[in-house]
């Protein structure tokens, strides 16, 4: 499957993730929602890992890889809790999700530039500026 199709499928899954957090946020406490979400995600990941293992695929693991995955898990766990909290305060998903996702795209790009020494083309830089403008407009309207 081409990377762009995979990326769009990922975006669809993230949309479901954010939308269902929004719907659940006034039905249960943020901590409960985050734990349920993580348990389901861990179960799905474990099933995928088991499938790969049963297929005999090599699964090379490094200490650095485990550390980085742990840090990513810390980030997503905190993001999940905070997303529940944001939506429990009545923020519409049409505002909260673009601010959260757009902000994460922007900050990830900055980390890529500063920490990973990546580069941006002029159109990519303009795209990031448009994200900033979109976040400002969305935040001002609510």
UniProtKB/TrEMBL annotation:
Domain EamA: 2-139
Statement: the UniProt record of this protein carries the keyword Transferase: no
Highest taxon of the lineage: Bacteria
Keywords attached to this entry: Membrane, Transmembrane, Transmembrane helix
Pfam family, any one: EamA
Protein's UniProt name: EamA domain-containing protein
Signal peptide, first to last residue: none
Annotated InterPro entries: EamA_dom (IPR000620), EmrE-like (IPR037185)
Transmembrane segments: 34-54, 66-87, 93-115, 122-139
Higher taxonomy: Bacteria, Pseudomonadati, Bacteroidota, Cytophagia, Cytophagales
Keyword Oxidoreductase: no
């Amino acid at each position: 499957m081409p990377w762009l199709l995979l990326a769009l499928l990922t975006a669809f899954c993230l949309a479901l993730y954010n939308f269902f957090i929004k719907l659940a946020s006034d039905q249960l406490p943020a901590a409960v929602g985050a734990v349920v979400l993580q348990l389901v995600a861990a179960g799905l990941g474990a099933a995928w890992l088991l499938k790969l293992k049963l297929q005999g695929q090599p699964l090379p693991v490094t200490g650095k890889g485990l550390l980085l995955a742990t840090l990513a898990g810390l980030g997503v766990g905190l993001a999940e809790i905070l997303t529940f909290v944001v939506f429990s305060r009545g923020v519409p998903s049409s505002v909260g999700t673009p601010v959260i996702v757009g902000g994460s795209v922007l900050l990830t790009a900055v980390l890529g530039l500063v920490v990973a020494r990546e580069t941006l083309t002029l159109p990519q830089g303009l795209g990031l500026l448009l994200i900033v403008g979109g976040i400002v407009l969305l935040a001002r309207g609510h």
